[in-house]
Design brief:
Number of helices of chain B: 9
Largest sheet of chain B: 5 strands, mixed
Radius of gyration of chain A: 24 Å
Strand order of the largest sheet of chain A: 1-9-8-7-6-2-3
Number of strands of chain A: 11
Oligomer: heterodimer
Strand content of chain A: 15-25%
Strand order of the largest sheet of chain B: 2-1-3-4-5
Number of helices of chain A: 13
Radius of gyration of chain B: 20 Å
Helix content of chain A: 25-40%
Shape of chain A: globular
Order of helices and strands of chain A: EHEEHEEEHHEEEHHHHHEEHHHH
Structural class of chain A: alpha/beta
Structural class of chain B: alpha/beta
Helix content of chain B: 25-40%
Order of helices and strands of chain B: HEEHEHEEHHHHHH
Distance between the termini of chain B: 56 Å
Number of strands of chain B: 5
Chain lengths: 386, 292
């Protein structure tokens, strides 16, 4: 299997393995000793709300194995595309003066120093299936046209051990997008929680190599009743999450049917939207960025990449003052159609994993799943049938 | 609840307003802002402790799509009414453009769902600091008198006292930890009814006063500027902290500033739009100990 090929069912699916909770903590210990960064859901103390965050573990004891932990409040995005990343530093250097050749620029010649980001070998332990899948979906745009080296160097340095979902709420809608509580996309290993440990599904060659490197931790036989227990829990959750009307609405949008772009409904839909961009800040599949210069005095500075969002009016504001997306309805429409029409048109997959963060966190109560249904309801149904 | 619906329905059918902005509940038990334009839809309106949102933000001149709907009525709690007073004080709004439906408040939750239970765990910390739970200067006052909210687990004044007991290095480390999480989405600004600048300093690049990238230096500059610009104007509605996707405890800053304005200038962000804003007011007897 190639380095970042989208996952596909292997011909010879390796038999599932077992790892006990003790061995899982031991595995974290092994990784930390080997100078690997281990990122797992953690609680940040003193925050306005105590919610799990994907953050580096300092010790194996800090690993949270609670099955009722809610979805981490932020996605994995920041670990692969940091909110702010220095691309390079620049300085003006005065060339040695020569008699016949005055320098073109009185400040001198520009010299660039690459700001190589230090990203250590990393294990992500306890990613949610929706967050792991997002990485694989975003890979496609990151390799389109020009390969994003920063993204792929981080992807290559990371092994992703996803934990099957045991928690869901009314905002989750992964199953309407072809994913689910044990979706394999983007994961190297999938750990399905059971009493006292996890059933381990090996999904990629990278996962296979990781297991081989830590073979003693995966050596105990898989108790058959634990496998059945884990699979039953997943099946029950999957059934809970089924939402056929929403799956249909997503299908209609991705097929570009019904004239969604010119539908009148966006004004009504976006009326309560603040354009605050919290949805984009938390979204596992949003990847838009801006490039900014930070001069430190006239002779040196840093060029940075920073997160950006289509929900901000200045995202599309032209230098002339003209803004092709002049109001929140056009900006909200952009968000929805980019994810559910433009991206699948180009790459075959919707740019959403149904994690529901945008729904839970929206200060104005914008509910993407509800809005998809509402938009679908307003579309030209005759066109949808044809 | 019945009263709000009756008032809204009467205002719409009588042609006094084109829209009423209040609260409604969705299928998940989550409360959200509701724009009602049809009197028959007024029955959707509710009021209970899930109605946390400060709807005054929709009155900002920049919300052109709301203004385009015509003349409106707004359901306000006391904190929301203080925000409306702020907009009137700063000439963002004319009082006769607007009908205010005030609702007596017994405190709200931190989050707008999933249930309406108000207890020490769910109550918004800011409600303990509320000076007046009955909205003033409204056109219609509805709802029964309610008992004060329960004391919450989170005590902002105690947390502030704890922070002030720290060394300045430790305090800086505390805020650095929280501000380093900031992703500069500026949601704190977008949901703030008093953030009414036509063009925010954070969006200016010529010159760039505040570095735009979300690293600690730029984040400190942004958060400090935001806080100082809201000193004495902030009504403590808590929307910024509620919206913050990375859970920065902004309520501590708001409460500290409001306490400071009270101590030093005997100023409160009141419901009286005629009371001058401290940022635009000068008194010869102002404390000047900082001028040396």
């Amino acid at each position: 299997m190639s380095e970042h090929a989208p996952s596909s069912p292997e011909k010879d699916t390796p038999a599932p393995l077992w790892i006990s909770d003790d061995d899982l903590r031991g595995l974290v210990d092994d990784c930390l000793r080997a100078q690997r960064q281990v990122i797992a859901p953690m609680l940040e103390k003193g925050a306005a709300r105590a919610r799990p965050l994907y953050a580096p573990l300092a010790t194996a004891e800090a690993l949270r194995l609670q099955v009722d932990d809610p979805l981490p409040s932020q996605s994995l995005r920041r670990h692969f595309q940091p909110p702010s990343q220095a691309l390079f530093r620049w300085t003006f250097e005065k060339p040695a003066p020569t008699e016949d050749q005055p320098p073109e620029n009185p400040l001198g010649k520009v010299a660039l120093q690459p700001a190589t980001p230090a990203f250590p070998p990393t294990v992500i332990l306890g990613a949610r299936p929706c967050d792991a899948a997002a990485l694989e979906i975003v890979d496609q745009v990151m390799r389109e046209d020009r390969r994003d080296e920063s993204w792929f160097s981080r992807r290559a340095a990371t092994v992703i051990l996803t934990r099957g979902c045991t928690w869901s709420d009314a905002s989750c809608f992964c199953t309407s997008l072809g994913l689910g509580p044990d979706a394999p996309q983007g994961s190297d290993l999938l750990l399905l929680p059971a009493q006292g440990g996890h059933v381990v599904r090996v999904l990629t060659a990278k996962g296979q190599a990781f297991v081989a490197d830590h073979a003693p931790r995966f050596a105990a036989p898989l108790p058959d009743h634990r496998r059945r227990e884990a699979e039953a829990a997943l099946a029950a959750l999957r059934q809970d999450l089924e939402n056929k009307p929403l799956s249909d609405a997503v299908d209609h949008l991705r097929q570009g049917l019904g004239g969604a772009f010119s539908a009148a409904i966006w004004d009504e839909v976006a009326l309560r939207c603040h354009g605050c961009g919290v949805c984009a800040a938390l979204c596992p599949t949003c990847y838009c960025f801006d490039i900014v210069e930070e001069p430190h005095g006239p002779k040196e500075g840093v060029r940075r990449m920073k997160w950006d969002t289509c929900q901000d009016p200045i995202f599309t504001l032209h230098g002339s003052g003209h803004n092709p997306r002049p109001n929140q309805s056009s900006r909200y429409r952009q968000r929805v159609l980019h994810k559910f029409s433009v991206y699948p048109n180009r790459f075959g997959q919707v740019l959403c994993t149904g994690c529901g963060r945008c729904v839970r966190a929206c200060p104005a109560g914008m509910d993407l799943a509800e809005i998809l249904l509402q938009v679908d309801g307003a579309l030209d149904h005759a066109a949808k049938k044809s | 609840m019945k009263e709000i619906r009756e008032v809204a329905s009467a205002l719409l059918s009588g042609g006094q307003v084109d829209w009423v902005l209040g609260y409604e509940e969705d299928a998940k038990g989550l409360v959200k802002p509701a724009f009602i334009t049809d009197p028959a839809q007024a029955a959707r309106l509710i009021f209970d402790p899930r109605c946390v949102h400060n709807l005054a933000v929709y009155l900002l001149p920049g919300r052109r799509h709301v203004r385009a709907l015509g003349r409106g009525a707004l359901v306000v709690k006391a904190c929301d009414a203080r925000a409306v007073a702020g907009l009137l004080r700063e000439h963002q709004l004319q009082r006769d453009e607007l009908v205010l439906i005030g609702v007596r408040c017994g405190g709200v939750r931190q989050d707008p769902g999933p249930d309406a239970v108000l207890n020490e765990e769910s109550v918004a910390a800011r409600c303990a600091l509320c000076p007046e739970r009955t909205p003033q200067r409204v056109d219609h006052l509805v709802g029964p008198e309610l008992p004060p909210p329960p004391a919450g687990n989170r005590d902002l004044l105690r947390e502030i006292a704890e922070l002030e007991a720290l060394t300045s290095e430790a305090r800086f480390a505390f805020w650095s930890k929280h501000f380093s999480r900031c992703v500069r989405c500026h949601a704190c600004r977008q949901v703030c009814p008093l953030c009414n600048c036509t063009r925010c300093i954070a969006d200016k690049s010529q010159p760039q006063f505040i570095e735009a990238a979300p690293h600690l230096r730029g984040n400190l500059a942004w958060n400090i500027t935001r806080a100082l610009h809201l000193a004495g104007r902030c009504v403590g509605c808590g929307e910024c902290e509620r919206a913050c996707p990375v859970d920065i405890p902004l309520a501590l800053i708001n409460a500290k500033l409001s306490h400071f304005m009270h101590e030093r200038y005997a100023h409160e962000a009141s419901e009286d739009p005629e009371q001058p804003s401290p940022i635009g007011d000068f008194r010869s007897d102002d404390d000047q100990e900082f001028i040396r």
